[in-house]
């Protein structure tokens, strides 16, 4: 390349980067502490170097990237161990949405194998909207289970429904470990008893809770609350667990883990022109960045690192509740995980006013409340500023 051309290229690159910077400056930043409603956070600093190293990897064609493929198997093994499964099978994919759709694909295929015409799945009222996408795509039939006093699935409703509809085959139960709105955990051991009796597949959506509950110290566990959610519970066949939420990995890094590799055949599609004959993930061409960053962050933090992060989030959760009390703001429930629901007569209206004041939080549907997810980027100082703004907004 001529010297002149090189100089021109450099000038062009500088201009492009300047323009990109301006766009990026329009975005909110986690460190400013004003993102209070997201389940994502600032990725762990080691991510930057890993992203650069794995930039060109493509797990859609794993024969070309055997090292990255090995890493994926190791990550799934590590996550499996965290979830009490010595023999896991799964993938690091684009997020919780893809993970839930993937699990529903398996439930549907298994149902078809049994010769059923309708795919019947119990799903809690609190289920994430990704299940609605799955329903639309696969024509699933959901039986929506109401919530009990704890805002968790009413297991008696499931039992009664099965008794009253014996002719209706039930293919699956979706349970949540760390619901999007409140952080509640369905009573999965109780659900498991019913599932075992009727040979039903349980899928647990632990997209958020998967990287919280295993590291939650006893002192943060509510008395009489059931925190069991993983493969140690019978009939739990698949779990969504997202590294790009409380796992601190950069987006995209979602996780789907199955009890074992026998479920792969329900996902496999023939791939005539790639280095491997079958592909199981929904997304074809997919970066290996999620795999490599998750591997690196999990190795670096280990159990102790995640325990500290979860404990800090829980301390800040309790601090928010304490500050709320000072201003007579009520919590809708005792926090189960690092999510606080603040009772409000008009949560949507209040959240819009707060947004105008520069604070971004969301609302609950199952109870009139504002919702704060106390992620690792939230500090006590942010909480103080937020509480004062909320008080101002409510003209305390
Ligand atoms: N499941 C639960 C419980 C969630 O809270 C979310 C997102 O917040 C999802 C699934 C979807 O995850 P994603 O946005 O990564 O697709």
TrEMBL record:
Its cofactor is pyridoxal 5'-phosphate. GO terms for molecular function: aspartate 1-decarboxylase activity; pyridoxal phosphate binding; tyrosine decarboxylase activity. The keyword Lyase applies. Keywords: Decarboxylase, Lyase, Pyridoxal phosphate. Pathway: Cofactor biosynthesis; methanofuran biosynthesis; Cofactor biosynthesis; coenzyme A biosynthesis. InterPro entries: GrpII_AminoAcid_Decarb, MfnA, PyrdxlP-dep_de-COase, PyrdxlP-dep_Trfase, PyrdxlP-dep_Trfase_major, PyrdxlP-dep_Trfase_small, Pyridoxal-P_BS. The keyword Chloroplast does not apply. It catalyses: L-aspartate + H(+) = beta-alanine + CO2; L-tyrosine + H(+) = tyramine + CO2. The modification N6-(pyridoxal phosphate)lysine is found at residue 245. Signal peptide: none annotated. SUPFAM superfamilies: PLP-dependent transferases (SSF53383). Pfam families: Pyridoxal_deC. Its EC number is 4.1.1.11, 4.1.1.25. GO terms for biological process: carboxylic acid metabolic process; coenzyme A biosynthetic process; methanofuran biosynthetic process. Belongs to the group II decarboxylase family. MfnA subfamily. Belongs to the group II decarboxylase family. Sphingosine-1-phosphate lyase subfamily. Catalyzes the decarboxylation of L-tyrosine to produce tyramine for methanofuran biosynthesis. Can also catalyze the decarboxylation of L-aspartate to produce beta-alanine for coenzyme A (CoA) biosynthesis. PANTHER family: PTHR42735, SPHINGOSINE-1-PHOSPHATE LYASE 1 (PTHR42735:SF6). This is Probable L-tyrosine/L-aspartate decarboxylase. It comes from Methanofervidicoccus abyssi. The gene is mfnA.
């Amino acid at each position: 390349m001529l010297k002149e051309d090189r100089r021109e290229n450099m000038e062009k690159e500088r201009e492009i980067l300047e323009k990109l910077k301006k766009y990026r400056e329009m975005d909110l930043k986690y460190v400013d502490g004003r993102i209070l409603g997201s389940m994502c956070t600032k990725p762990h600093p080691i991510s930057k170097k890993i992203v650069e190293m794995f930039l060109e990897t493509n797990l859609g064609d794993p024969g070309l990237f055997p090292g990255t493929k090995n890493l994926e198997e190791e990550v799934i093994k590590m996550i499996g161990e965290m979830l009490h499964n010595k023999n896991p099978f799964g993938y690091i994919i684009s997020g919780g949405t893809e993970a839930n759709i993937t699990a529903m694909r398996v439930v549907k295929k298994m149902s078809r194998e049994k010769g059923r015409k309708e795919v019947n799945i119990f799903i809690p009222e609190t289920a994430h909207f990704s299940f609605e996408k799955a329903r639309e795509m696969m024509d699933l039939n959901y039986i929506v289970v109401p919530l009990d006093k704890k805002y968790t699935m009413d297991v008696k409703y499931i039992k009664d429904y099965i008794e009253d509809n014996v002719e209706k085959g039930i293919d699956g139960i979706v349970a949540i470990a760390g619901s999007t709105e409140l952080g509640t955990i369905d009573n999965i051991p109780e659900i498991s008893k019913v599932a075992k009796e009727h040979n039903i597949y349980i899928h647990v959506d632990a997209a958020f809770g998967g990287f919280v509950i295993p590291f939650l110290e006893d002192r943060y566990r509510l008395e009489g609350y059931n925190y069991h959610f993983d493969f140690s519970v019978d009939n739990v066949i698949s779990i969504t667990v997202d590294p790009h939420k409380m796992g601190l990995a950069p987006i995209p890094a979602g996780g789907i883990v199955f009890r074992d590799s026998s479920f792969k055949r329900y996902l496999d599609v023939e791939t005539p022109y790639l280095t491997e004959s079958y592909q199981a993930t929904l997304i074809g061409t997919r970066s290996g960045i999620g795999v490599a960053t998750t591997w690196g962050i999990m190795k670096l933090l280990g159990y102790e690192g995640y325990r500290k992060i979860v404990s800090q989030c829980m301390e800040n959760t309790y601090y928010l509740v304490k500050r709320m009390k000072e201003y007579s703001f009520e919590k809708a429930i005792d926090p189960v995980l690092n999510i606080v629901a603040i009772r409000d007569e008009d949560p949507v209206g209040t959240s819009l006013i707060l947004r105008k004041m520069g604070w971004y939080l969301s609302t609950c549907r199952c109870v009139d409340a504002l919702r704060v997810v106390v992620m690792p980027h939230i500090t006590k100082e942010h909480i103080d500023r937020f509480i004062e703004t909320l008080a101002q907004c409510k003209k305390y």
